[in-house]
Structures are given as structure tokens and as C-alpha cells.
Amino acid sequence: MGLLPYMAVFVKVVETGSFSAAAEQLGTTASSVSRQVASLEKALSVKLLERTTRRLRLSAAGADAYAHGCEIVQAAACVMALAERVNDAPQGMVKLSAPRAFGRALIAPHIAAFLSRHPGVDIQLQLTDRQTDLIGDELDLMVRITDTPPEGLAARPLIRVSHVICATPTYLNKHGYPQHPDDLARHHCLYLGETPGDNVWKFRHLETHDRVSVVVHGRYVTNHSLARRDGVLSHLGIGCLPRFVAREALEAGQLVEVLPQWDYMTSYYGMAWLLYHPNRFLPPKCRALIDFLAEKIAGSPPCAVEG
């Protein structure tokens, strides 16, 4: 039993990748963390970590120990949540991670209503396009956009994700309406710009399933969907936008969908899932937020997202 704290420290070292990073999160020193891992190795009579000058690497035994250690840490978290489960009212902090554009447009606007409905619950919303991990990032819930949710996690579908190519009537009246994806090469286009391939737009015809790739160019490139929408609304060109970001402007006639017979293809495409630990003792605070987001997002009109 005395080894349990050492196991928790060992799990944190593996998750963070170093003694110093683990120590920072645990509020102790790197030397203390190193001593605890060494004590665990001595008690088990196995080498758990291969130490080099630059990084740590799990041994075969260490990989097994880490897997079981994660189960122990998760079980401890369940025990700590006992007090909350005894109470009927959800309470405590919920840490939720979501892709930036998705979280900003589809989650953040509903947070005030949730907090009003559940005064005992606090929310920490992390908006990042980095692929997060429930254990490694110490999260309760996370949103991931994929057609295949990861194994080992419970998944609640929220909404299907797709994209729209659009522009203002003013821009299109001045520069013309594209009739084929190849026409986009002669237009000003607003695109993501995070990687060199972001200006290669890929399309699939909805009926014939023909595929076309076109290299686009433009004077304004930004990796934020709301900023791209504002640029498109300022008549700067044709933009690729999450449908939910463009929806109101499309409905108001401020934007016009371009090439509606073509599907804009991207890796950031599929179902948005709300992921959490498959725990039959799921804390009420998490269950309340899961049900709330499913009500607000899955119950809203179909829309789409891009990071």
C-alpha cells in the first residue's frame, strides 16, 4: 500500500515526459520525483524507465506498470468523487477540452446558461487544436472530431462536421461566380495557412464523385475561422469556413455558397464526439455537462466546423 503514491508519481512522469515537468505539476522537486520512482523500481526489482541525457523511455516492464498505474490513478479519482456522488446536486470543477473554432462557436456561448442551471459546478474550458488526452491533460471531457472515436473511451455524438466555400454577393458580382473548382485558381481565396498544403483545396462532386484539387492564392491567410469569416464579409475573396460559422451570414444573404454541388474535403471532417472515461460512477457534474451539451449542440440545426 505504501507504494501507491510512488505509482501515481511514476504515471505522472510518463505522462509529462520528464521528472522536472512531473515535479512542476505535482508541486515538488525533480529530485524528489526521481527518488520516488527509484524507490518504486527498487521495491519491484525491475527497471521501469531507461534514462538518457535527453529523454526517458519506458522499459517493457515499465509499459505494463504504466498501464496498471493509470488504472490505479483512475480508481483513485473515482474514490475522490464519492463525496460528490453522494450529493444529488452536481458540484465541482469540470475540465473540458475542445477544438478552438468548435469550442468558441458551439460550446462557449452556452456556458453561462449551464452555470446558471448548475450553481455548484465550475467550468474550465480549454480551446486547442492539439490532440488532447484525458489522463495526460487531466481532463474530465474532451471533444474530438473523427468518424472513429478512440477505443476505450465512452463517446457521445454531438454534430456532424463539414465545410462551406462562400463569398459575398459584392465580391462575386465583381469577380464572377466559379463554375468549377479549377476556377478558384483565378480568384482571391482565404485559407487556413498553418501548413504548406493548406492552400491546396480538395473537392469531390456530390453526384459523380469526381475528385479535383486546386492550388488557391489570396492576400489574406489566417488560421482562425472567425477571422476568415470577417475577411470574407469584407469582400476580400472566397473563403473556406465551418458551416456553423457562416450559417447566420448565409441565411441573411450576406454570404453566398460557392460550388454547392462539390464537397470540400479536409482531414478535419466527421462527427464531433464528446469523449469521457467509460466509468459507471461518472460524477454528476460530468453527466450534467454531457447531457447539457448534447441538448444544446446535437439538438441544434446541422452545422459544421473547421479548426
TrEMBL record:
Organism: Cronobacter muytjensii
One Pfam family this sequence matches: LysR_substrate
InterPro entries: LysR-type_TF_proteobact-type, LysR_HTH_N, LysR_subst-bd, WH-like_DNA-bd_sf, WH_DNA-bd_sf
Name of this chain's protein: Transcriptional regulator
Top-rank taxon: Bacteria
Keyword line: DNA-binding, Transcription, Transcription regulation
GO biological process: DNA-templated transcription
Gene3D superfamilies listed in its UniProt record: 3.40.190.290, Winged helix-like DNA-binding domain superfamily/Winged helix DNA-binding domain
Family membership noted in the UniProt record: Belongs to the LysR transcriptional regulatory family.
GO function terms (MF aspect): DNA-binding transcription factor activity; sequence-specific DNA binding
PANTHER family for the chain: HTH-TYPE TRANSCRIPTIONAL ACTIVATOR TTDR-RELATED (PTHR30537:SF5), HTH-TYPE TRANSCRIPTIONAL REGULATOR (PTHR30537)
Domain HTH lysR-type: 1-59
